[in-house]
Write a sequence for this structure.
């Protein structure tokens, strides 16, 4: 209970909790015969999150300047560009909300597409970083504990050869695995918003998984990559 209170007390943590409920509503509405009430709740939660995110594009843009000096070129590029893309996503998101509140007059479809594409680019860059980090982890593992060769190719042989690697990564690098799971679930959300995926149940489940993974990273900073 204390952990949940701590999570809810932070702006980002509160957003992840509301986000989990939002995508739970999306999942539930996809299974209901009369989903209008659940869809209305989902829409309300989505709009509330957009309102509470106003101004965060500036924070995201500023955070991109903090990774410019990272010594690793791949991490420097992926993290910096991802944060810039995230700032672009949030900026477009701000404009979309302002339009929905009838405060400005813009091309809603154009800016919504811009926002969702920027969101997708940000996640792809995060996934690129995750794959790079796991590749480095596996490279270090091979140097210290080389995988035993098997006499012939078989399901059992492959399992025996690679199980120690999987166990090592899950035990020693939970943060990299969790971040990969979060971003793999996240990538389907902008694809759905852009109209490429039309499976509300699947999208709802992905939204819940990515939100819970992000919440775990907030509750335990050791799980952050």
């Amino acid at each position: 209970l204390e952990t949940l209170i701590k999570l809810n007390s932070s702006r980002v943590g509160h957003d992840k909790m509301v986000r989990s409920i939002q995508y739970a509503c999306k999942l539930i509405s996809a299974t209901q015969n009369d989903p209008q009430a659940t869809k209305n709740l989902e829409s309300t939660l989505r709009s509330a999150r957009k309102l509470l995110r106003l101004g965060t594009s500036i924070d995201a843009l500023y955070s991109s300047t903090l990774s410019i000096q990272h010594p690793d070129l791949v991490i420097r590029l992926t993290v910096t560009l991802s944060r810039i893309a995230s700032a672009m996503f949030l900026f477009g998101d701000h404009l979309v909300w302002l339009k929905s509140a009838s405060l400005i007059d813009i091309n809603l479809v154009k800016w919504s597409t811009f926002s969702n594409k920027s969101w997708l680019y940000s996640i792809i860059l995060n996934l690129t970083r995750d794959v790079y980090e796991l590749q480095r982890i596996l490279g270090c593992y091979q140097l210290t504990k080389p995988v035993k060769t098997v006499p012939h190719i078989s399901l059992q042989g492959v399992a025996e050869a690679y199980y120690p690697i999987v166990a090592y990564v899950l035990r020693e690098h939970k943060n990299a695995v969790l971040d990969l799971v979060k971003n793999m679930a996240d990538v389907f959300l902008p694809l759905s918003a852009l109209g490429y995926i039309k499976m509300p149940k699947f999208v709802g489940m992905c939204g819940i998984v990515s939100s819970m993974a992000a919440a775990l990273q907030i509750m335990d900073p050791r799980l952050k990559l």
